[in-house]
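Subject: complex prediction, re-run

Hi both,

The earlier run crashed halfway through, so I resubmitted it with identical inputs.
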Amino acid sequence: GESVGLHLPTLSVQEGDNSIINCAYSNSASDYFIWYKQESGKGPQFIIDIRSNMDKRQGQRVTVLLNKTVKHLSLQIAATQPGDSAVYFCAENEKLTFGTGTRLTIIP
Amino acid sequence: GAVVSQHPSWVICKSGTSVKIECRSLDFQATTMFWYRQFPKQSLMLMATSNEGSKATYEQGVEKDKFLINHASLTLSTLTVTSAHPEDSSFYICSANNRGRVNEQFFGPGTRLTVL
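This time it finished cleanly. Structure:
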């Protein structure tokens, strides 16, 4: 069946460094993708989204890249801070299918 | 804006009892609300999609008679876990679509259910 999955389950990054979280999807018909951040014991929080007619979108300290050719999505977080430590999920809309998630740990 | 609340935030109950979880959109009208379940260290799994005034659509493998969903208004959906058992212990999260921004879902803070 269709799936959205992440390459790496955990990622540790030194504070101040940049981090990249990857996501692979298999539904080539997907046209809208979202990255969510989930802190422990809380619901997911919207970070950034991108439509399939774009290959890059930037927000505050975050950038999402979409490569439709290889069905790959990535989230780049610049100048990481301790508050960035969380689990990050990519998802396809409208019926959200979440990937496994990557736990990002920022090392002080 | 676009705040979704859940109540209770956590609940502990005995096996065999029923538990109701509320999901409210506080400052917007939600055309659709979604219910997810998340087990420890796992991803969110969609359980059902709920549209105001109509029956919920359940995902494959989710028992509709066990997980009763009521969506009586554009700001409230409830999930009732009937005859709960320890295996139903999980983190239940709802989300809502803003009526004016259909593609964006806003998530509630989740409800931790522990069944003894």
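The longest strand of chain B covers residues 30-38.

- K.
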